[in-house]
Amino acid sequence: MSDMSSPPVTPQAFSADILRHLKQSLGKDASHAALYDWRMALSLALRDRVVDPWFESTRKTYEARGKRVYYLSMEFLIGRLIEDVAVNLGLDAVAQEALESLGQDYAKVVADEPDAALGNGGLGRLAACFMDSLSTLGIPAYGYGIRYEHGLFEQHFKDGAQMETAETWLAQRHAWEFERPEVSYPIHFGGVLREVDGAQVWEPGETVMASAYDTPVVGWQGRWANTLRLWAAQPTMAFDLSSFNRGDYMGASAPEALARTISRVLYPDDTTEDGKELRLKQEYFFTSASIQDLLRRFLSEGGDLAALADHVAIQLNDTHPAIAGPELVRLLIDAHGMEVALAISTARACLAYTNHTLLPEALERWPEDLFIRVLPRHHRIIALIEAAHLAETGSHVRIIEHGEVKMGELAFVMAHRVNGVSALHSDLVKETVFADLNRDYPGRIINQTNGITPRRWLYSCNPALRDLINETIGTAWPDDLQQLEGLSTHASDAAFLERFQAAKDTNKARLANWLKARDGVVLDPAAMFDVQIKRIHEYKRQLMNLLETIALWNDIRDTPNGNWTPRVKIFGGKAAPGYVVAKEIIHLINDAAALINADPVTKDLLQIVYPENYNVSMAEILIPAADLSEQISTAGKEASGTGNMKFALNGAPTIGTLDGANVEIRDCVGAENFFLFGLTAAEVVARRAEPSYARRAVEASPRLARVLKQIESGVFSPSEKARYAGLVQGLVDHDYFLVTCDFDSYFETQREVDTAFADQSAWTRMAALNTARVGWFSSDRTIAGYARDIWNAPSLIGPRRSQKDVA
Ligand SMILES: *Cc1c(COP(=O)(O)O)cnc(C)c1O
User: What pLDDT was estimated at residue 800?
Assistant: First the structure.
């Protein structure tokens, strides 16, 4: 939109902006400015340029009186923002030149920004990609979440074991946010219900304030900007002066400390819920603030609440904000006098729910007594919702059952659409977790396969490949990613492939330099970089990757003069602090690395690297440098995955199972450009029914048996020989995730990878075809699908370029 974009900025003008902020906002002059000052000045100069498109977008949204999308998510895994904003504004080159003209190292300043790590993994990163795409598509939207004081913990290794320390991203001022002290809402907990004139009146026992902090999120080419609104908890009374005057200094600060606890830390558990009262309070805290906020906005425009769903679409990212249903119903009934049935149908027309897990134990459930204690009025409202649902459908599925409040069922019943996040996952949602509700509400479950933003995950993290693509097919691809298909015809052109490989080599050298400087680790850039980075979880099977690595080590030692393809096995990822088995796996990877990396026989052929503290910024360095992408979860367990998409887009073929979006990636890139192995989801279920399947698999595989014996007998833990006896015993005894059953297939497929990699030009061709054929996995396509199938929300920036094959 030409009327919204600012006039072109010269590097001279931009360096003047930076100097002005250095002086006026930071109170420093250039000769005394520290790295922090430069980083803040650069960020503020960029932020200035977001404000106009942001205001303009808000104005257009009010004018259009159309629909706003509200994306409620407990997590936003954002990462750094300087490059993201610069790239979206088209100011990346200008910012770099400006800063360097002031004698500063741009890369160093960019790297000084702490990651905003308000999420655990894929779910939070998805929310961040969606925010980028909502702005790029010009759909009026708010992201709503929690402004945690401490994001995801920092991971350190001590003698190979994971240690956690608190993350402190807010220790320095956060450059991108605007504090909104005037936007705050009371959030109530506990207390009692009283009957007044036949109506239920909630007299809460405790109240905190939710206070807004806004970060503008600007889309591609600065055409539109939405708001990420994060809530911080504050006390209703900051300080108890009477306690202080009595000499009770601790007591005087108690209200503040108590309230602040609610937005203090991100729960580091990324799958199962631990049923903590604080967690329930966090969920209600941000959900209630968000619902109050969107209702206030709607009413301030003179809206009639019966027409709420024409103006409001609320998307629940997993069940964490599922209390949105009863909260909206409560406010419609208690605060606005709406009749119950209309309140429920109105809320349902606004709400939609994205399911992210099939593990029944990971669907949130709250003990009913806890729920009544924290949210007594909502407990009654849920009973009304349940009664309406049972009457409407004749269903036998309850929401409150066996002393528990089931948030999955609540979210489902209160949503007009429920979506899974890959084709396979959505089918399994219909067949397994919500089979009964799917019969009660046919057609409610749909699919929206996840995506990733190509601005962060190609354009800015991989400048070498980006430049080659620009030169080859032009520059219109970043918001129309299917255009990458135009690279296919070049995949048989030797000169193009040579340049594609040169870009990969540049990224591998960049990674090698980074690791050398950071950890003192030296990599051989000619070796295959084989990368598995993601949360550590048994279903993701990092252990199987390590077992294969050890088996390979054995084979090389048996035949040191064989024709081996040199590999660097790169691992990255954190384990939830309370997840004992995941932490054992981390320890074992590090123990194995210590022994194997020191082996003179194999050291030029096999290396294990595990840089600590995997996060978004590390992903941005590792993924462009990867030759091989490890997506090896037990089939049926990974809902979609998005790491898999990032690797393929950056020219790393996958070794993987038929799980999550791997299935669709393989369909797109072609079976010949994907290394498939392992049992299918149906075969996994069948295998688990066979007696002693793990023991039999080990007995049938001498190679695996040997590796397990080495680990069990303490080869990798000489100072504590029994360290991994339990881990190995667990595999042989239950092996719920079928590591033993898929091991041979995985090992053999890895040897096919070896052979394929040795033919350099054929490999590069395969890599280039991966990049060319995964344009469909742009989160722009995903968001266009949600907008069309769930929200009925139009773009306000006019006709888009044709998006072929949208969903
Ligand atoms: C993309 C991403 C994830 C999700 O990875 P999966 O392989 O899909 O589990 C997790 N963490 C970070 C930092 C990411 O960038």
Answer: 52
The pLDDT of residue 237 is above 90: no
Atom of ligand 1 nearest to the CA of 614: 13
Tell me which CATH code domain 463-678+748-775 carries: 3.40.50.2000
**Positive or negative: CA dihedral 330, 331, 333, 338:** negative
Mutating to test ligand 1, I would choose from 533, 640, 777, 779 the residue with most ligand atoms within 8 A of its C-beta, which is 533
Cα-flanking dihedrals φ and ψ of residue 772, to 5°?
Answer: -65, -30
Protein residues with CB under 6 Å of any ligand 1 atom: 121-122, 125, 534, 615-616, 619, 641-643, 646
Q: What is the 3-state secondary structure (H, E, C) of 362-376?
A: HCCEEEHHHHHHHCH
pLDDT attached to residue 257: 80
Residue nearest to atom 5 of ligand 1 (CA): 643
Residue with tokens 């024409």, as numbered in its chain: 310
314 has pLDDT over 70: yes
Strand, coil or helix: 735: coil
In the block, tokens 């190679």 appear at 703
Strand partners for 72? 144, 316
Cβ within 8 Å of residue 719, ≥6 positions away: none
| Per-residue confidence band for 99, with pLDDT thresholds at 50, 70 and 90 | very high
Atom 7 of ligand 1: nearest residue by CA position: 643
Q: Is the pLDDT of residue 2 over 50?
A: no
Start-end of H helices in 204-270: 241-245, 249-261
Of 414, 417, 433, whose CA–CA distance to 425 is shortest?
433
- In this structure, what token pair is assigned to residue 188? 């109530």
Contact between residue 363 and residue 357 where contact means Cβ atoms under 8 Å apart: yes
Question: Which DSSP letter does residue 457 get?
Answer: I
Mean pLDDT value of segment 295-309: 95
Angle at 731 between CA 725 and CA 732, to 5 degrees: 90
Average pLDDT, the chain: 95
pLDDT band at residue 44 under the 50/70/90 scheme = very high
Averaged over 558-574, what is the pLDDT? 97
- Report, as an integer, the average pLDDT of 431-441: 97
The pLDDT value given to residue 805: 38
Which pLDDT score, from 0 to 100, does residue 799 have? 60
Going from N- to C-terminal start, the domains of the chain cover 463-678+748-775
Three-state secondary-structure class, residue 540: helix
For ligand 1, atom 10, name the residue with the nearest CA: 121
Q: Whose CA is nearest to atom 11 of ligand 1?
A: 121
Three-class SS of residue 114? coil
Three-class secondary structure of residue 494 per DSSP: helix
Residue 665 has pLDDT above 70, yes or no: yes
By CB atoms closer than 10 A (0-12, 13-18, 19+), residue 324 is buried
- When mean pLDDT is compared across 272-281, 400-409, 773-782, the lowest value belongs to 272-281
CA-closest candidate to residue 135, choices 221, 44, 214, 233: 221
Three-class SS state of 239: coil
Greatest C-alpha distance within the chain: 89
Phi and psi at 721, nearest 5°, equal -60, -30
Of ligand 1's listed atoms, the one at least distance from the Cα of 615 is 13
User: Which positions are catalytic?
Assistant: 356, 534-535, 540, 642, 646
CA 240 – CA 251 distance, rounded (Å): 8
11-40 tens-digit pLDDT: 999 999 999 999 999 999 999 999 999 999
Closest atom of ligand 1 to 122 CA is: 4
H or E stretch at 117 = strand 116-118
